[in-house]
Design goal:
Oligomer: homotetramer
Strand order of the largest sheet of chain A: 2-8-7-6-5-3-4
Number of helices of chain A: 14
Largest sheet of chain A: 7 strands, mixed
Structural class of chain A: alpha/beta
Strand content of chain A: 15-25%
Radius of gyration of chain A: 20 Å
Distance between the termini of chain A: 16 Å
Largest interface: A-D, 55 and 54 residues
Helix content of chain A: 40-55%
Order of helices and strands of chain A: EHHEHEHHEHEHEHHEEHHHEEHEEEH
Shape of chain A: globular
Chain lengths: 343, 343, 343, 343
């Protein structure tokens, strides 16, 4: 069955599987001390242009958000996020489970504003009993956001300035980082991202890996004894090589960005296919997730032959659905979709 | 200095101190097994009209909210509360510290609606990936609310129905319960409250005690081994008699409600004093907290002679302030206030 | 009924009640900012001889241990304690509840050795996979211990040296601090204690107060935003005056130590009473808790007329019981006990 | 370099990689709802002989222990484990991080006794203040243990009886389950294991998979909403297929047990090689981990050519080291080891 249900419907990019097979019998130490993790970390430090960066490999996104956030803030601090942020909504309370509040800011198309951060902190300290409230301890944004949108360089610079002025570390959730960087609307590089935050992660699971997220502390600022903290969160893989080999491959010959570029191109085709047929978009997304408004009858009919995601109710007769692309999406898939729409 | 800063500016009602002195030398076992706690619990069960109720004495409000809520819900459940609820805003993240999200609903004058609860649950389960979201596990409301307002009997019945339909226990934070019950606007008794929720607490600290809150599980539904859970939260007092004697006194000769009635009468006088002089109220509060809009110059002038609380900024020239009454407020205090306003 | 069941069988020392009555109507701000807390803190800083100390008033012992320990150590650190330490055994898992392991060391009569600390840390780092183990983050001892024993000055100096060598802050649980300091076996003063640890608390509940423990950070080393952290733990009393007045009284005219001295004298009498009659002691305790071995028949007989605590089974025919004294124990009580033993 | 450092030095069994490659392009839904997870779960239910079992796939051992244990016990309960249990020692405080104490029992060769469990519970309730102590909430054992030893059927039956008598669920950590079952000393089958506990996991990471542990609730007793709880712990893989394909392969044509049998045979050879040369064993292990006492000089010499694990100091001149085998160990490896020893 044709599927645009998500960017994790298929396994790994073939290059990754190939490398896993090639390296399978080489003896390696565990827990991330293998040579592949070391090589991958070196390549990532190079790619992000931060010689003093520290790189760690974790398994999945929620685990990464939980481990990074809750080891960077103090007991009675919370993390500021968009009310639509993944940590606010779709992580089953993983942040709260480790003792911290997610402080939500209003968003527009999944994005928060630098001014909202500054204003929040200002109002916070105006409150005479602010000590009885959760202290704002850091800021979390996603790039791209949960709605597929991206921050411009100017917007990110402003956010990072607001963070620095208020002594709030900035963390960028890059579960789909590649799709943001390769978007035609993007005016930033991977190095820009690394220069404009304190920590971010390079998402593997949704960008061609079987699993894995590479956390980058951009300036030697990893929490002390971070390996032990990963372990405490169940985030330290015994066969760390599984992550090392994958990221080593993704950061060889620009594979990570090439995969991302392909998915963006496929998304642009999908956008064209729907636009040409008069469909409306819920959000103007420049990345690999496209949010289309379908009338419910059409939706039911399409569902018989193609997988996509329910996003939210639009009105009584319409629904917002999501079509996602990835390294595995082909032009044939899009043509098949076109045919189904025209049927 | 004249003070309306809060309902905890003075010590305890003199009857309570008297009883503490009288009972001081009687040997008693610790940790709530003393005869005063037992007597107080019996009187409370009688007063609330629930023979199968279970009563526990804790020390303060935040501690009580934390202990009650986080021992009643499952790991990945959160508590639904008004976005202005005390647990949402003024408890330094005490709920999150114990692992649970506070799920906020929109409020009006501090109150949430039964329909908001039902709607929240409905939309929650419509989400295809609801399992990735925090489950709604119980509902928290305050009576009176943080804005001094109260629910009508009809409103509370509707909320409790919505809770029962959705299998959500209802918890009422009664830090200022007496002031709600004795409000002229209130159409409920203590027994009504007890019949319309699963657990609530009778606030002592803000209603004449030195400290102490009496938690009432209304129908034999206390979490098993609750004493041990109180201990784990640092909420089990060695000299439990301190709480027992206070609540035993408060529930002798109707002292709890009499104190509350007095504070309400004083609040009505304050309301009259400000109304007659043309001041506006931020909220029409029928309880012991009055929220008045002062122009900033007047506020600065008044502050020299009388204590009250900053509440929030109203506009560039005006501020919302709170005047609170309690058992210790006198008619002379109000007259002095009047004189200051007319100065 | 005659009672030696604990040091919290009676209410407060009469001086304390008197001051509570006298100050009852004075308007004060809440949450520890009242003048009594300020005065008490100043007196305590003076008494402990540490001008740069920071003093906070909490309500009970378990709450204090939980709040102090879990705000001083990092996420994957644990607290080292004797296997008989209060935090290890009798706090219902309060430390673990906040995310931290209690690492237990062997004890003798409730005491741990400096060498055990150093050895533990040494072996810890010899382990090749030490990063997978809980890091030792601080050391907790009780003075007196749970068995009524006390550290000598030399022992405490050695422990504090071992702590400093290993960068482990030292916390002394002084729930019964006065009884340790006034023991005839004690070679330390309050100032010595304050000079030989990073943080300790002066127990009020068990030394004449209704409730309350005064935490002393000895050298300006309180965790930042400690008030907010107390709030988060439900440990910040609205009517903080209740604690302020009590400690202000206890630190006026040496009341705290005088009370303690009295209890020690009463304990020495009890010791004499039992010794003279040939009873054995489970432990040679120089403080206000005496651990006596009773044959079970005698124990049952005595229980009819006098309250004491079960401690542990000694053998099939004998039981260890605890007799405790406090400010409220009188010579008449001891004489009554004597008569019962001779009956 | 020759390596016996652990059972996770190589990648996955080739059959697993083959299946990953074959299934790579098939579109599948995420989060464990893919067809491979379903097929693997069905095969596991068949293999364990429990039609009412519930099977979940998690990523690693510490994560699994944390998620299973802390979702099965109540707030103020702890988990009973051997003092050498993995959860007690090598998980960086993962259990405590989620709020629960690990209650340790004495062990012999890594094993606890049924009688220790019963005795612990008995003494627990004899304590008059047991409510102030952590309640024993469940029992954790490892099979094989951290010392490579295994329980006999009789021992496990007794333990499970003791658990049932005391209403304590029994959880078996089967990180190396296959190596226990295929040990020549084992008198149990996989079905026996499943019949003698409430929940266990079938370790993948150390038995031929790249990662993955299959949790089996043996009688429809999974905590409600377990998927959401996995998510909250960061234990729900987006590409769940990675785990499904691996376990589906491991449970096809008996691969899981065949791999295990091979590793046991290799371990027996290692045992023979060292025995014949007069080396002593620290523990008589019948599974894939062999603990050998080496004199330090020999150890240093061997280390140049072969990898093995430091276990613990034996005496000033000797060290305990661990040699582990797995699916990837070959007879040639053993011969090479033999040659090195005879060099």
């Amino acid at each position: 069955m044709l599927s645009f249900a998500s960017d994790y419907i298929a396994g790994a990019h073939p290059e990754i599987l190939k490398r896993l097979v090639e390296t399978n019998l080489v003896s390696q130490p565990g827990y991330g001390s293998d040579e592949y993790c070391q090589s991958a970390a070196a390549k990532i430090k190079e790619a992000v242009g931060r010689p003093d960066a520290e790189v760690f490999f974790l398994v999945g996104g929620t685990q990464t958000n939980q481990t990074v956030i809750t080891t960077m803030i103090d007991n009675n601090e919370g993390v500021i996020a968009a009310e639509t942020g993944h940590v606010s909504t779709h992580e089953a309370g993983a942040i709260e489970h480790c003792g911290h509040k997610v402080i939500t800011l209003p968003q527009e198309n999944g994005k928060i504003k630098a001014s909202s951060i500054s204003e929040y902190v200002k109002v916070y300290y105006e409150n005479e009993s602010f000590e009885h409230c959760v202290f704002p301890g850091m800021v979390y944004i996603s790039f791209p956001t949960e709605y597929g949108t991206i921050y411009s360089k100017k917007e990110l610079e402003d956010i990072y300035s607001a963070c620095k002025e208020n002594s709030l570390p900035l963390f960028i959730d890059g579960a789909r980082l590649g799709y943001g960087l390769e978007s035609y609307a993007c005016d930033m590089t991977l190095k820009d991202i690394a220069a404009l935050c304190d920590v971010f992660y390079i998402g593997g699971t949704k960008v061609g890996a079987l699993c894995g997220e590479a956390v980058v502390y951009t300036h030697g600022n990893a929490p002390k004894r971070f390996i032990g903290k990963m372990k405490q969160h169940g985030a330290l893989l015994a066969k760390g090589r599984l992550l090392g080999v994958q990221f080593d491959t993704l950061f060889t010959d620009n594979l990570y960005l090439n995969i991302s570029k392909h998915a963006i191109d496929m998304a642009e085709l999908i956008k064209k296919v729907f636009s040409e047929r008069g469909y409306s978009f819920f959000i103007d997304s420049p990345t690999n997730q496209q949010f289309i408004i379908l009338d419910n009858k059409k939706m039911a009919e399409l569902r018989k032959d193609v997988d996509f995601s329910y996003w939210e109710k639009y009105d009584d007769d319409h629904t917002v659905v999501r079509f996602a692309t990835s390294w595995s999406t082909t032009e044939e898939d899009i043509k098949a979709l076109e045919a189904l729409l025209d049927r």
